[in-house]
């Protein structure tokens, strides 16, 4: 059986969830990923993925109508799995379902409309009138109201489950790959020029709702040059450093985006993994995937009480309130002064990840959902 996984933008981090779904399914099924690429190419951290990808260059309407036809022609799976509730993934999947009768599952790991709501009234009006963008607000608004047309729905967190129903399938990781026993933290620190330093690490694209500004503010309160903040994921290292207050610039290290297969090695250098998510319309419907990377690697974690983070960690990490740099600073100091306790929590986080958030859990959940859909179609 072949499954076509639809990704709305292959060139962005949206590819991450689509790839994870495809990876889990590839253990059982023949799988391919199909989608548009807004910037051209595959998202850099996963550019060397071994899963087959069919790429189509993104465009605006009316030219996108031709692109959409080409994508529809390329979908040859027996079942369609659309990643994210977006017009260029779920919307195209719906069209293929209507024309071919192929079953369609939609997987939702973000509240897409939430990303539009932070722009204010006039910003919202402007976005709503943006009819040339295939993933513009009017189309996303319409697509969200068609979720019931899917044969099955999966979601990554409880906010989305309450909003769209569906099976709860959180982010997962291959804990056999993200295994701390395979790496030497001291060697990695030496390679990145931070031997004998304490490393607080931030992974991911530094968008406002990710809370990196709060973490930078926390470092102003730490005032210890032996504690370094390592940021991985900024688009332009030098431009980002210019934004950092001069008083803490010596404490901040910005590393380039790294291929996914190199991530465990880099993550091994962290003494603390910080996930300072803010509570906004952007973040209430998502769980940071990096939380599961850190858990799998047995890292002490500082995270905010946002979305399902407290439930996922379940006392295996350190929680602070969002938008509170002083709490972040206090938590960092506490962990560095109580390293034995932090190691115990890190080990507990890995054990919890292996039990509840390993890729085998996602494989089992998706396979069960697919079997239900096929059985329903057969009847």
Descriptive notes:
- The model has no long low-confidence stretch (mean pLDDT 93).
- The chain has 379 residues and is of the alpha/beta class.
- Helix content is 41%, strand content 16%.
- α8 packs across α13 and α11 (290-296) packs across α14 (339-356).
- It has 2 domains: 2-172 and 359-378, Rossmann fold (3-Layer(aba) Sandwich); 180-356, Glycogen Phosphorylase B (Rossmann fold, 3-Layer(aba) Sandwich), CATH 3.40.50.
- 43% of the residues are buried.
- The strands form 2 sheets. The chain has a 7-stranded parallel beta sheet with strand order 3-2-1-4-5-6-7, with helices on both faces. A 6-stranded parallel beta sheet has the order 10-9-8-11-12-13, sandwiched between helices.
- The chain has 15 helices and 13 strands.
- The protein is globular.
- It has helices spanning 14-25, 64-74, 87-100, 120-128, 137-144, 158-164, 185-191, 212-222, 237-243, 263-267, 290-296, 309-313, 325-337, 339-356, 359-378; strands at residues 2-7, 30-37, 53-57, 79-83, 104-108, 152-155, 167-168, 198-203, 227-232, 252-255, 272-275, 301-304, 318-320.
Considering DSSP H and I runs of 4 or more, what fraction of the residues is helical?
40-55%
Order of helices and strands: EHEEHEHEHHEHEHEHEHEHEHEHEHHH
Total of domains: 2
What is the end-to-end distance? 19 Å
Quickly count the helices.
Answer: 15
Low-confidence stretches: none
What would the CATH topology of the largest domain be? Rossmann fold
Largest sheet descriptor: 7 strands, parallel
Which whole number gives the mean pLDDT?
Answer: 93
Shape: globular
Instruction: Please give the order of strands in the largest beta sheet.
Output: 3-2-1-4-5-6-7
Provide the CATH top-level class of the largest domain: Alpha Beta
CA radius of gyration is 21 Å
CATH superfamily of the largest domain: Glycogen Phosphorylase B
User: What is the strand content?
Assistant: 15-25%
Class based on secondary structure composition and strand pairing: alpha/beta
The total beta strand count reads 13
């Amino acid at each position: 059986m072949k499954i076509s996984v639809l990704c709305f933008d292959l060139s962005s981090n949206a590819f991450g969830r689509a790839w994870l779904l495809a990876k889990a399914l590839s253990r059982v099924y023949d799988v391919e990923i199909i989608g548009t690429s807004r910037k051209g190419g595959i998202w850099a951290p996963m550019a060397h993925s071994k899963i087959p990808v069919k790429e189509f260059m993104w465009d605006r309407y009316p030219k996108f109508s031709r692109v959409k036809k080409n994508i529809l022609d390329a979908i040859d799976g027996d079942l369609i799995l659309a990643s994210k509730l977006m017009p260029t993934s779920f919307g195209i999947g719906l069209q293929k379902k209507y024309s071919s009768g192929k079953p369609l599952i939609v997987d939702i790991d973000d509240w897409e409309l939430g990303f539009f709501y932070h722009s204010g009234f006039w910003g919202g009006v402007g976005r709503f009138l943006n009819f040339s963008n295939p993933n513009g607000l009017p189309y996303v608004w319409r697509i969200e109201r068609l979720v019931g047309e899917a044969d099955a729905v999966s979601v990554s967190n409880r906010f989305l489950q309450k909003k769209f129903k569906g099976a709860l399938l959180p982010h997962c990781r291959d804990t056999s790959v993200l295994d701390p026993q395979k790496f030497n933290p001291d060697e990695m620190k030496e390679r990145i020029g931070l031997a004998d330093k304490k490393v607080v690490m931030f992974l991911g694209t530094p968008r406002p709702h990710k809370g990196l500004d709060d973490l930078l503010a926390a470092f102003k309160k730490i005032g210890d040059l032996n504690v370094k903040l390592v940021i991985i994921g900024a688009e332009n290292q030098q431009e980002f450093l210019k934004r950092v207050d001069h008083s803490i610039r010596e404490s901040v290290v910005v590393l380039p985006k790294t291929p996914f297969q190199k991530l465990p090695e880099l993550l091994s250098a962290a003494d603390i993994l910080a996930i300072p998510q803010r509570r906004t319309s952007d973040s209430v419907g998502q769980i940071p995937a990096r939380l599961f990377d850190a858990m799998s690697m047995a890292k002490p974690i500082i995270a905010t009480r946002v979305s399902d983070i407290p439930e996922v960690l379940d006392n295996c990490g350190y929680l602070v309130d969002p938008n509170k740099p002083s709490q972040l600073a206090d938590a960092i100091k506490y962990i560095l002064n109580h390293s034995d306790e932090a190691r115990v929590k890190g080990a507990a986080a890995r054990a919890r990840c292996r039990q509840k958030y390993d890729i085998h859990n996602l494989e089992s959940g998706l396979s069960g959902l697919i079997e239900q859909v096929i059985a329903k179609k057969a009847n």
